């Protein structure tokens, strides 16, 4: 099966959805994940460099957190180059045996993790490419049961294994799960499109 999965990332919901898919697959088959952030040249000004670094740090932080919650080994790398060629080349460099890509990303890989880039990666890469598309308005966290499971994983990862969880409430673009233990009360916010999770202590 797969042992090393490469996932190009940015901070869009599409990319985070693909990263979640890659991490779940890695967890299921015992593989590791390598998150790759590609920025287009030239990155020749301080402003460009700082913006690119900020976006890559946000993307990596989310992927690393999700991987750690599932006990999946993860590495991160930034490269400068044309996205499709860079992704295909890096797959060989890191000896990936699968590439998982989101399509229609809107930032990070400078709006270039989209359908046409995914198609080009598929032509250039020497390993299989799986594309995960999050259509307009589609939600990656679709049910209260799934939101509750994600919240429980987040709480356990942050040392709140014994927290009592309430039924999730659905808001416009997120699920909110209230929880409490002997150390306080918490809201777990789950972005319904990307699946990104944030734990906030409220009491």
Describe this structure in words.
- 38% of the residues lie in helices and 28% in strands.
- It has five helices and ten strands, in the order E-H-E-H-E-H-E-H-E-H-E-E-E-E-E.
Keywords:
203 residues; alpha/beta; 5 helices; 38% helix; 28% strand; elongated
- Spatial sequence of strands, sheet with the most strands: 3-2-1-4-5
Please state the overall shape, judged from the principal axes of the Cα atoms. Answer: elongated
Low-confidence stretches: 105-113
Please report the total strand number as a whole number. 10
For the sheet with most strands, the description reads:
5 strands, parallel
Average pLDDT confidence is 84
Taken as a percent bin, the fraction of beta residues is 25-35%
Q: What is the rounded Rg?
A: 17 Å
- The tally of helices reads 5
Distance between the termini: 46 Å
